[in-house]
Amino acid sequence: MAVPNEHPLLAPARREAVAALLIWFLTTVYCVGYCCLYGYGRDPKTLTFVLGFPDWIFWGIVVPWGVCTVISGLFAFCFMKDADLEN
Amino acid sequence: MLLAVTAVPTPGYGVLAALLIFIAASVWLGTLAQKAMEKQDFMQGFFLGNRGLGAWTLALTATVQSGGTFMGFPSLVYSFGWIVAVWIGSYMVVPLTGFAVVGKRLAQLSRQTNAVTVPDLLRVRFDDSRVGLLASILIMLFLSFTMFAQFKAGATIMQHAWPGSGILALSEDYDTPVAKDATATGESIESANRTWKQALRELLPLSPKYYIGLIVFSITVVGYTLIGGFLASVWTDLFQSVMMVIGVMLLVCLAVPMAGGMEQASRAAIAATSADIAMGPGYSTAGREFLTPGLALSMFFVWVFAGFASPASMVRVMAAQNTEVMRKSIFLLSAYNCLIYIPLVMTCIAARSLLPDLGKRSDEVIPQLSLLVTRDFPYHTGEFVSGLILAAPFGAIMASVSCFVLVIASGLVEDIYAKLINPKATEAQLRRATTVSMVAVGLIAVLANLNPPQYLQALVVLSGSAGAATFIAPVIMACYWRRATATGALTGMLGGFLVYFAIYSCGWAQNWATAHRSAELAKTIIEFLGEDPMIGAAGLFRPYYILGVDPIIWGLLASIFGGIVGSLVSPPPAPELVKRFFDIRPASA
Predict the structure, then answer these.
(1) Residue A51 resides in a domain
(2) In a domain, A55, yes or no
């Protein structure tokens, strides 16, 4: 709920903070979940390699890392707003 | 083709030359920084660089865990394998959370409060000197541990870079060799006939090269920080960050093909150890599970929250020029992390097949590998190139120490001297106080490292995570919650710190009890706390794992709980205070 007279920096800053924490949360759930499912307690004979990485590291860490880098770029240049810091 | 390597070149003059070039470059940057900062107010200029950090300096210095990147991290990959990619995985979101969660608001608050330090900001925001004092004491406590360890690391690197030293361990936990003459040999020395030499040996038990390194390192770092202040610190940090990425790119491009490609390197590592090196929870010969699912989850909290809630990081964000700089920094740091961490994991997995016999000397993996992959370079250029690669972590340590000296000195000058001892201090007095406090901090660090305790690295990890657990709730509350009170900030800080420290203490007690099973007290402790769960890295200072997760999670929860409850049970803050920091300011008359 918007507060009357609230400084214009606050609402976008809150929104960006929530969005960043949401991205962190989703990344954590995916990466830890995927790696635990496919990297732990698995028969080593089933291990395959993708571009030289163990498959579970590739899909659980390398790919999300690339995706996060793209998302960070979009976040920085398309989502995050500039504001006057009252210098 | 898999290369079996047995003979690795030893460091020559190239390594020492590279370190000396780094030192000279740092001093030069210090003088440049001095010229840049002397145009404006001393406190703002010296401790915050006049709030003028650009995108590159902010991105590559605010949340980069520089010192450990080339030291402990490669050792972990070499020892435990691919699982360490999960251990460091949360760095993929650190740039985003580091600047987007509190960055913009923190930078605004620091301007509204005219704060130079984090405690100063919290003190004015909550209008309570107790908040500032407690924050200042805790920050100085946390950073002192970290800083002392970095002094030891810097001195140790200089010692080992000496031509012909034969070893190149970069970790400060490396058992610094005792000088050959450090123990009494030949004629036995009667206890009643102690000579001054023996007394000196007891006082200074390590190799003379270590003490030369300690003195050179300390004078250099304190010197250039004293000359150039905050800007000298961040510019050196930027310099080493650039060197580090060049070093990593060189290493990965040379080491992976030499190992026969990434898949071949992994298969060779599996053949040399076991399939565990390519699986969770990681390879171990000691029966420990390095990264259980619970600890993997914990690491996604540790790096992220330590990234934006550690005092050293927050100071850098406070110094950002504007929000455009922060936005660009998010992307720059994301790209930088991409180029550093995954390639470093690849490099160290390749090292498993290229240097299969490092064993307990896994700390030497990067220096040994850099000497190995450059050994066929023409005209002995390989030695110098590897020297430059090795100089990057040395520069990283210098930059870290410089930052810590600055933050501790700013706490002593701004939060203690200017606020409590001499509130009407003139600029000349503040300059003098700054010089005295920085020299004193350097001297104390040197004295603490004359006979350095072991396990300082564990204390570094403890103090870094404790900083996050302590400040996360007060800082978020200060930024976004109108109802937050000084009581809430105090209970948030104390709650996070005490819970985190208590859980760590239980871990130490458990470790002690495990090592002294026959003692009655040890039996009682084991009965109460249980047996060592054999998870996480081994070490005397490992924590106690409640429900199998790192104490930072409990510390964060305690900080948040303490902050919310403390605020709600105390009277609301004064409306004028809330208005000042949350509402539009009326246009000045």
Answers:
(1) yes
(2) yes
pLDDT exceeds 80 at position B259: yes
- pLDDT given at position B317: 87
Report the C-alpha gap between B490 and B135 in whole angstroms.
9
H or E segment at B376? none
State the average pLDDT for chain B: 82
Closest residue in chain B to residue A68, using alpha carbons only: B92
The predicted model gives B288-294 an average pLDDT of 91
What total of structural domains would you count in chain A?
Answer: 1
- Supply the pLDDT for residue B535: 87
What band does B375 get if pLDDT is binned at 50, 70 and 90? confident
- Minimal CA–CA distance to B540: which of B518, B499, B510, B519? B510
Supply B201's token pair: 């040996």
Say how far apart CA A50 and CA B228 lie, in whole Å. 48
B395 phi and psi, to 5 degrees? -65, -35
Q: How far apart are CA B589 and CA B587, in angstroms?
A: 6
Interface test with B, best of A25, A43, A69, A82 (most B CBs within 10 A): A69
Phi/psi of residue B178, nearest 5 degrees: -80, 140
CA distance A42 to chain B (A): 8
Q: From CA B321, how far away is CA B330, in angstroms rounded? A: 14
Retrieve residue B228's tokens. Answer: 């150039």
pLDDT in tens, B394-446: 777 787 788 888 888 888 888 888 888 888 888 888 888 888 988 888 888 88
The 10 Å CB-count burial string (b at 16+, else e) for B221-237 is bbbbbbebbbbbbbbbb
The reply to whether A15 falls in a domain is no
* Cβ contact B423:B465 at 8 Å: no
Measured between beta carbons, the chain A residues lying within 8 angstroms of B342 are: 61-62, 65
Helix residue ranges, H only, B38-100: 42-48, 55-62, 66-69, 72-80, 83-87, 94-100
Residues contacting residue B443 through CB under 8 Å, at least 6 positions apart? none
A81:B323 CB<8 A: yes
Query: What is the C-alpha separation between B5 and B3, in angstroms, rounded?
Result: 6
Q: What is the dihedral of CA B397, B401, B403, B405, to 10 degrees?
A: 180
Q: In which band, very low, low, confident or very high, does the pLDDT at B173 lie, cut at 50, 70 and 90?
A: very low
The domains found in chain B, sorted by start residue, are 31-179+202-451 (1.20.1730.10)
* Structural domain span for residue A51: 20-79
What is the complex's ipTM, to 2 decimals? 0.95
Asked if omega into B281 is within 30° of 0 (cis), the reply is: yes
Q: Which of B104, B289, B325, B333 to mutate to test the interface with A (most CBs of A within 10 A)?
A: B104
Residue A12 within a domain: no
Q: What is the pLDDT of residue B493?
A: 95
Instruction: Report the candidate in B101, B105, B107 with the shortest Cα–Cα distance to residue B53.
Output: B107
Report H helices in B376-422: 381-410
